[in-house]
Specification:
The complex is a heterodimer of chains A (about 130) and B (about 280). Chain A has about 130 residues and is mainly α. Chain A is about 70% helix and about 5% strand. Chain A has a domain of about 80 residues: Fumarate reductase/succinate dehydrogenase, transmembrane subunit (3 helical TM bundles of succinate and fumarate reductases, Up-down Bundle), CATH 1.20.1300.10. The radius of gyration of chain A is 22 Å and the shape is flat. Chain B is elongated. Chain B folds into 2 domains: about 100 residues, Ubiquitin-like (UB roll) (Roll); about 140 residues, Fumarate Reductase Iron-sulfur Protein, Chain B, domain 2 (Orthogonal Bundle), CATH 1.10.1060.10. Classes of the chains: A mainly alpha (about 130), B alpha+beta (about 280).
Chain lengths: ~130, ~280
């Protein structure tokens, strides 16, 4: 008897509507756009800094515009979400075995959150915020 | 001493479709009418699949597989599906149940409300009704060499390849895979890029790679550390969410990405380095 298997195609552009977990995944991936855009903003800032005081002042002025503030707010939320998904993933990517037992996943992720907080405070101290 | 009979015995569908009596009492307190929409496809007569509606009296404690067995025994002997152990061990009865890859022997009817939609595992060709063709998975499984390739071959007279409990625990979780293919049905990358080796096969490669007795990692890397291998994985994580054996394929694949990256750095960026 010959086989005639039925192939059911995956919709190439709408597949992520099939399940909430795929939407969560896509939302994580979309945050990369904000992370990337903010990196571009930092590069533009460095460029204006190297171009002289006037260019730097113009850049700072542009940062204060309502559209810029709205973007920075969205970028902050997206970056925090992106970072959280990254830190939560560390327990899968870097399991720590001591003897026969594995260190609990939330300790591995938690250690990354603590390191994140310590480094952020360090950066803020260097920036003269405190 | 024999155990007492369970309160109700799910029906067993005979292969020839003959009805097998159910011990469930019609109209009993713990019975309810369950509605199922089952995807049907007959390769001899159909060009497309279609849903067929069934209503079947089921015991409260039954699983979806019991309902399918009841349908096959009492209502429609032409319904096709695979199953064997009825205890989430054999991995044969994987299906999409309300859009979620599940072992049908592990999907309790009481967990669902309304019409239960039952489809064959997605991302696999449908042979007939709920039966899918696992050929692609089997082929990929072979390619990752999922067996022990000893570091040093020993004569039988030299004794076993010994291992400490800690060395065993390092890979034990990844050896629990029952090849049910639910992770392939959950993985959108496999659906979109069928050449992807996929979660279960790659996880088995990892299982042997981290086995202290194994020396076959380099051979497996030819398949693992490629675009079709771990680098096709974008860490959706669905494989681990649906795995009935708690194998956590997503963790295995992320660990393989790290070791493959270290290989690349050693080989390309360190003078004289060899992976």
């Amino acid at each position: 008897m010959s086989r005639k298997p039925l192939v059911r195609e995956v919709p190439p552009t709408t597949w992520y509507f099939r399940h909430p977990r795929y939407l969560r995944y896509m939302s994580r991936e979309v945050t990369s756009i904000f992370v990337g855009a903010y990196c571009v903003l930092l590069v533009v800032g460095l460029q204006s800094l190297s171009s002289g005081e006037a260019a730097w002042e113009d850049f700072l002025m542009a940062l204060r515009s309502p559209a810029s503030i709205a973007f920075q707010f969205l970028a902050l939320i997206a970056t925090v979400y992106h970072a959280a998904t990254w830190f939560n993933a560390t327990q899968k990517a870097m399991p720590l075995q001591i003897g026969e037992d594995f260190v609990a996943g939330n300790i591995i992720s938690g250690a990354h959150y603590v390191a994140w907080a310590v480094l952020s405070v360090g950066v803020l101290i260097i920036a003269g915020v405190f | 001493m024999s155990n007492s009979l369970p309160r109700s015995q799910p029906p067993l569908a005979a292969p020839n479709g003959g009805a097998v009596a159910s011990l469930g009492r019609p109209g009993g307190n713990n019975e309810r009418l369950v509605q199922l929409e089952v995807l049907r496809y007959n390769p001899d007569t159909d060009t497309e699949a279609h849903f067929q509606h069934y209503e079947v009296m089921c015991q409260e404690e039954w699983v979806v597989l019991d309902a399918l067995n009841k349908i096959k025994a009492d209502i429609d002997p032409t319904l096709n599906y695979r199953w064997s152990c009825h205890m989430a061990v054999c991995g044969s009865c994987g299906m999409m149940i309300n859009g979620e890859p599940k072992l049908s022997c592990h999907a309790f009817l009481r967990s669902y409300e309304g019409v239960i939609r039952v489809e064959p595992l997605t991302h696999f060709p449908v042979e007939r009704d709920l039966v899918t063709a696992p050929d692609d998975f089997m082929e990929k499984l072979k390619r990752v060499k999922p067996y022990l390739i000893p570091k040093e071959t020993k004569a039988v007279s030299e004794g076993e390849y010994k291992q400490t409990p800690a060395q065993l625990m390092k890979f034990r979780q990844y050896s629990m895979c029952i090849n049910c293919m639910l992770c392939y049905a959950a993985c959108p990358e496999y659906g979109l890029t069928p050449s992807f080796i996929g979660p279960a096969a790659l996880t088995l490669a990892h299982r042997y790679n981290i086995d202290s007795r194994d020396g076959g990692r380099k051979e497996r890397q030819e398949v693992v550390a490629t675009h079709e291998g771990v680098w096709e994985c974008t860490f959706v994580g669905a494989c681990s969410e649906v795995c009935p054996a708690h194998v956590d394929p997503a963790s295995a694949l992320q660990q393989m990405k790290i070791t493959s990256s270290i290989d690349w750095i050693v080989e390309h960026l360190i003078p004289g380095g060899k992976s």
